[in-house]
Amino acid sequence: MSKKIMVVDDEPDTVDLVKLVLETEGFEVITAYSGSECLMKLDEEKPDAVLLDIMMPEMDGWEVFKKIKEKHRELPVAMLTVRNQDIDKMLGLHVLKADDYITKPFGRKDLVERVKKMVEP
Predict the structure, then answer these.
(1) Which InterPro entries match (predicted)?
(2) Is residue 85 packed enough to be buried (19+ CB in 10 Å), middle (13-18) or exposed (0-12)?
(3) What does the pLDDT read at residue 52?
(4) Distance CA 4, CA 45 (A)
(5) Domain range spanning residue 66?
(6) Residue 61 to residue 53: CA distance in whole angstroms
(7) N or C: which end of the chain has fewer CB within 10 A?
(8) Domain count, the chain
(9) What's the whole-number mean pLDDT along residues 19-47?
């Protein structure tokens, strides 16, 4: 059974690219284009992991991350973002405890390996 990954980003091109890369590797991909859409779909879709953009309108990725973890503590969430400063990575990985912090642009192989690491035992 393939693992289900939710990709959350307000940029359709990014969502399409990540979806294409992951689907060619056998993952099932669910998409959301906002934090609120992500939160609405979580219970229904039950993904195995979430790739979450930080800079989104209305509700940013940090807020979405906190809301996900309130209800779904065990769900792996990786930040997928252009924010590549050390302070952002430290906040994501060590303060909020994201499962990974992937910066854009990303390599295809790197993305796939990191997603597999999040969902494989």
Answers:
(1) Bact_response_regulator (IPR050595), CheY-like_superfamily (IPR011006), Sig_transdc_resp-reg_receiver (IPR001789)
(2) exposed
(3) 95
(4) 8
(5) 4-119
(6) 6
(7) C
(8) 1
(9) 96
